[in-house]
Amino acid sequence: MTDQQAHILVVEDDTEICRLLRLFLETEGYLISFCHHGDEAVERIRDNQPDLIILDVMLPGQDGIQVCKQAREFYLGPVLMLTACEDDISELTAFKVGADDYVRKPIKPEVLLMRLQALLRRSQGTKVEPSENTHCDELTINASRREVSLNDELVALHSSEIDLVLLLAKNQGQAISRDECFRALRGFDYDGIDRSLDMRISSLRKKIRDQKSPHRFIKTVRGVGYMLVSGNEK
Fold it and tell me: Is the same domain home to 101 and 209?
């Protein structure tokens, strides 16, 4: 499947934004469907299993944060959130509940397109060559299948967490800077303030049971960034 054949579910109650998104994204070749109410969104996501979700934060009924949190119990694809807020609180909360990226309103079409194309490429595993497993003690990472296992049991990770693991695994034993992480995962440089990477690391550590310091798998390298520690090959 290519980007142009992808199904995007837009959860947005503003009819004018929906009209513009339809015109723009269908012109780019995407299949678009819409949901306009937060209380209906979770079931629509479950029933449709879209390739990507564009999810507004402010919705009638449940807001986008609540929708994302519930959807992450079964949906592992990319979620791009729309926010009209200028503060960082809603953005950090969005990352905490499992959003992959966000775009601020008013929407700039070229920015939205760049972000969703990057998310789709990563979630579909394009340009990933088959490779041997990467091992870090009980943790096993398979890049070609985009799978992470702990003690031979699959770990349920959403797409941005898998992207982060693969980046660390590709450079196992080497510290990856925050700038490198932001450029690889979000397409722009770290601004010195954004805490979304820390939120993703925290969520990832929780899922692979690595919350307590000293960390077994993902080490914080002070003043630099993060590193997947070298482990014994199984």
Answer: no
Q: How far apart are CA 11 and CA 36, in angstroms?
A: 6
d(CA 71, CA 171): 31
d(CA 9, CA 19): 14
Q: Do 113 and 179 have their domain in common? A: no
pLDDT in the model for residue 88:
58
Question: What residues are paired with 81 via a beta bridge?
Answer: 55, 102
> What percent of the chain is predicted at pLDDT more than 90?
52
Peptide bond into 109 cis (omega under 30): no
